[in-house]
Amino acid sequence: MRLTPWGAVRTVTGSMHLVETGGVRLLLDCGLFQGRRAEFYEINSRFPFSPARIDAVVLSHAHLDHCGNLPTLVRQGFDGPIYCTPATGDVAAVVLRDSAKVQHQDVTFVNKIRRSRGEPPMAPLYTHEEAERAIHHLTSVRYGRAFSVGAARVTFLDAGHILGSAITVIEAEDRTLGFSGDLGRPGAPILRDAEIPPALDLLLMETTYGDRLHEAQAAGAQHLAAAVTETIGRGGKVLIPALAVGRTQDLTYTLRELGAAGRVPAVPTYVDSPMAIDVTEIYRVHEECFDEETRARLEQHDPFGFKGLHYVRAADESQQLNAKHDPFIVIATSGMCESGRILHHLRHHIGDPQSLLLIVSFQAVHTLGRRLADGVSPVNIFGEPHEVRLQVVVLDAFSAHADRDELLGWVHRVPRVGQVICVHGEERQSLAFAQHLTARAITARVPVRGEPIAV
Ligand SMILES: [Zn+2]
Predict the structure, then answer these.
(1) Residue 230 gets which letter from DSSP?
(2) Same domain, 66 and 149
(3) Using CA atoms, how far apart are residues 393 and 372, in angstroms rounded to an integer?
(4) DSSP secondary structure string for all residues of 416-454
(5) How far apart are the CA of 245 and the centre of ligand 1, in A?
(6) Same domain, 68 and 106
(7) How far is the CA of 384 from the centre of ligand 1 (A)?
């Protein structure tokens, strides 16, 4: 068996790895590389192998950086099944349709500028129809049920990261390869904890937080409650940028719990994202992914709803929030403040020292979210500079990614690991994590992109 890491190598975006065994070619993930525009088109539109010669894709989960380039793969000749868990299939369909929409908007904007310069128009990376074609290839398989791709036997285990997220185990030629996908924090709300794979000859592993520790989750909830209570008390608004998939549901779940316990004041809370609304509906029909605590709660109440929680679909209703004078909480996309409705809320409140921007998730370099988290001021929003006067608080307890010690703890519970290949982390994080493993007598290293590795 041979593994070639092609994406999310020494970076966190564009997850994609090729596995070749017994004449079969499997692609683990086909994520969108997210970066500056020129790089975005260059990297996403050119595969370093022939898509037509891939027999199957095995998808770890439905985040855009893991599934978002599937429509390009299909357009360029891939015609096999895209295996994923049932919940991942449902969420991926929403994510891919939204991605096609975002790309249409982006290319419309770019082409306006190009036309004014007399340049020929650009085509989007993929269209809505091409996204639908990729969605048509999604083939769902439940956790724990092995399936075959040629002579390879593949099994999904729960990764506890977002709804439907999976660890992939591939057995072929008497060797076993494990791919962690993204791993969630143990004890995170809603979902079960990551399962432990069997003995592995090679473990391909995410290292997003390979050298960082998160705050404990109970302390995180306490800090969230304190920050929200203080802001509401002084009459401010609480703005929370969040991914539509995963973080939004964790937050509504946690705010519900805090509200029920009287730990946050009762103020209107808005989930301002049509996509988050669609994804929350998918969460509701996939109880099979919930942990026992959430299942037990289902019998008493709706874990994603509470009095005062409003889901905002219409754009005009979203804009009307700006006219409100009384305190409220708004959760809006995108998670790194790069696009979406959070930008309108930010522009409106960035000069208001009473309001709060609560950053609860990973912020990649070169994003507005990262600049705000780093205390940069002024920042550009819609091309205009704004002095940052609102309070900015960063809480990492709500991360959907396990931290360094949680990752190490998980590896230690695998019965045997031949070697660990560290991917899906900024270079510094991946290198540090490989060192931590080496110090614990586990063979580990960070590959270079395109390097063939014998399993
Ligand atoms: Zn993810």
Answers:
(1) H
(2) yes
(3) 9
(4) -EEEEEEESS-HHHHHHHHHHHHHTT--EE-PPTT--EE
(5) 9
(6) yes
(7) 31
Which domain-ending residue is among 348, 370, 394? Answer: 394
Q: Are strands 24-28 and 56-58 parallel, antiparallel or unpaired?
A: parallel
- Taking the C-alpha atoms of residue 355 and residue 330, their distance in angstroms, rounded to an integer, is 11
Residues measured by CB to lie within 5 Å of ligand 1, the ion: 63, 182
369 with 408, same domain? no
For the chain, 455 residues long, the average pLDDT of each consecutive 10-residue run is 97 96 96 87 96 98 96 98 98 96 89 93 95 98 97 97 97 97 93 97 97 90 95 97 91 93 95 94 93 88 89 94 94 89 94 96 87 96 93 91 96 98 96 97 97 97
Residue at a domain's end among 371, 394, 417: 394
170 C-alpha to center of ligand 1: Å?
Answer: 20
The DSSP H or E segment spanning 4 is strand 2-7
CB 272 within 8 A of CB 330: yes
User: What's the confidence (pLDDT) of residue 226?
Assistant: 96
Q: Both 59 and 40 in a single domain?
A: yes
- CA dist 412 and 408 (Å) reads 6
Domain assignment of residue 345, given as a range = 217-394
CATH number of domain containing 181: 3.60.15.10
Query: Residue 111 CB: number of other CB atoms within 10 A?
Result: 16
- Cα(62) to ligand 1 centroid in Å equals 7
Asked whether the beta carbons of 70 and 130 are under 8 A apart, the reply is: no
CATH of the domain at 365: 3.40.50.10890
Together in a domain, 118 and 86: yes
Question: How many angstroms from the chain centroid is the CA of residue 287?
Answer: 20
How high is the pLDDT of residue 109?
85
Q: Distance between the two ends of the chain, CA-based, in angstroms?
A: 5
Residue 343 near residue 379, CB atoms below 8 Å: no
**pTM given for the model:** 0.92
Cα 146 to ligand 1 centre (Å)? 23
pLDDT score, position 317: 94
CA angle 236, 337, 231 (to 5 degrees): 15
Structure tokens at 18: 């090729």
Answer whether 60's CB lies under 8 Å from 8's CB: no
For residue 211, what are the CA distances in angstroms to 112, 159, 362, 432?
Answer: 43, 20, 14, 6
Same domain, 162 and 205: yes
pLDDT for 265 = 94
Number of domains the chain contains? 2
pLDDT at 413: 97
